[in-house]
């Protein structure tokens, strides 16, 4: 990628802008946590955040579940240098998850606002690893052709929804609504109308 995920990028898109709205983020986090806990039938204990940026999900997650283990990965050298130590962030590109297994499978895997910027080859390389690292629910926030999404359009891949649905389903994920996908480990326990 030629785009620079530096301080100016995060200032432009996540501070003082709709994408950085703390109330909206808190609702999104609560939705993902509730979905994971509903299907796991217990409080979540671990979160893996792939493409975490500055680790914006960490604080609202810890507010809801103070004792959970949070681990974030991003390709922004700026974010890792600035927040890595204090927020448990580490450097990795999405494609690195073809081999990278940094933790046991997590109760909640977050990959928010990332996949629609990736070249198909990198997405296909890393996605099986993401699924393998998900023991509960994956929150995969993706925008597709026809969505009225607001935000960074540089290197945005304008793909149809079917492009992602086919890939997710081929790896055993099943949609449970609002960007949430059930891990293959839990699909057999779900009822017919809970999954899509």
UniProtKB/TrEMBL annotation:
What CDD domains does its record include?
AdoMet_MTases (cd02440)
What residue stretches are annotated with the Methyltransferase type domain? 48-133
- Swiss-Prot/TrEMBL keywords: Methyltransferase, Transferase
Source species, domain of life:
Bacteria
Any one Gene Ontology MF annotation carried by this entry is:
methyltransferase activity
GO annotation (BP), single: methylation
User: Pfam families per the record?
Assistant: Methyltransf_12
Q: What is this protein called?
A: Methyltransferase family protein
Originating organism: Luteimonas cucumeris
């Amino acid at each position: 990628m030629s785009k620079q995920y530096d301080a100016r990028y995060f200032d432009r898109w996540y501070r003082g802008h709709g994408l950085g709205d703390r109330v909206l983020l808190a609702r999104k986090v609560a939705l993902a946590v509730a979905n994971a806990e509903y299907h796991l039938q217990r409080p979540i204990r671990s979160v893996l955040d792939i493409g975490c940026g500055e680790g914006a999900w960490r604080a609202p997650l810890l507010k809801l579940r103070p004792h959970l283990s949070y681990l974030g990965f991003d390709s922004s050298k700026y974010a890792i240098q600035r927040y890595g130590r204090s927020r448990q962030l580490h450097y990795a590109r999405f494609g690195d998850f073809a081999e990278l297994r940094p933790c046991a499978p997590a109760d909640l895997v977050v990959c928010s606002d990332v996949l629609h910027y990736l070249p198909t080859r990198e997405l296909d390389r890393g996605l099986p690893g993401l699924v393998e690292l998900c023991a509960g629910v994956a929150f995969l926030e993706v925008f597709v052709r026809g969505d009225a999404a607001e935000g960074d359009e540089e290197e945005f891949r304008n793909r149809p929804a079917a492009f992602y649905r086919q890939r997710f389903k081929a790896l055993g994920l099943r949609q449970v609504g609002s960007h949430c996908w059930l891990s293959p480990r839990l699909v057999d326990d779900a009822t017919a109308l809970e999954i899509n």
